[in-house]
Amino acid sequence: MPELRLENVSYRYKNADRLAVNDVTCSFRGGQVYAVVGPSGSGKTTLLSLMAGLDKPSAGRVLFDGEDLATMDLDRYRREKVSMIFQAFHLFPLLTVLENVCFPMELNGVPEEDARVRARELLAAVGIEEEKHGRFPANLSGGEQQRVAIARALASGARVLLADEPTGNLDVANGQRVIEILSRLAHEEGYCVVVVTHNLAIADAADKVWRMTDGTLREVETA
Ligand SMILES: Nc1ncnc2c1ncn2[C@@H]1O[C@H](COP(=O)(O)OP(=O)(O)OP(=O)(O)O)[C@@H](O)[C@H]1O
Ligand SMILES: [Mg+2]
Prior knowledge:
Elements: E1 3-11, E2 21-29, E3 33-37, H1 44-51, E4 59-64, E5 67-68, H2 74-80, E6 82-85, H3 97-107, H4 112-125, H5 142-155, E7 160-164, H6 172-189, E8 192-196, H7 200-205, E9 208-213, E10 216-220
Parallel strand pairs: 3-8, 3-9, 6-7, 7-8
Antiparallel strand pairs: 1-2, 1-4, 4-5, 9-10
Helix pairs in contact: 3-4, 3-5, 4-5
Bound molecules: adenosine-5'-triphosphate and magnesium ion.
The site of magnesium ion has 4 residues, from helix 1.
């Protein structure tokens, strides 16, 4: 099962006077759901970007299965090993819903017809009806776009899922559906799931909760 480890990781944005991430050491393992909570501006999104290889630590290292990201082919890492679900969904506006979900599979060389079949399954799993598969993202509600983004993140087959507020735009029922999907992927299929969230239901469902405060990360004791 995959493991992401951060060792004394710090990050400072250009021209910023303080660290957005401050000396964080922790491990995230397959088979577990981790919730990262904390106030706005505390560094949660920055932490996920470092784990996704989208930013490079100013100090410290990020290891995937023991290998330092600094020495890895990062394009490949992002294509095959991690999937990020963004706070803003980042769907491709000129691709239909179905094409958006097929896209990561096509990058990984999955034949078009197989990709379509799998994409339909994933969209069904997040509750997007068939009639919406041909629409462009702009013609969906915020919550529907978020669910398409989740289906797309699952399509790559990457075993580490990094989700930034994935239920932020969802009603309770659809939020619950997302929590169930993420928990099942972790507990039954060995995915490593890291969810930044303000949603207490996710924090409750998580195996471990970490709290970010001013760039530092501490484990919260759960009952
Ligand atoms: N591109 C940037 N340039 C400079 N500073 C930034 C940049 N992006 C974020 N920051 C700063 O880094 C700190 C951490 O930001 P980050 O986006 O990681 O917070 P967050 O915990 O995800 O907040 P939220 O809950 O509001 O999404 C904040 O002080 C923010 O202002
Ligand atoms: Mg954020």
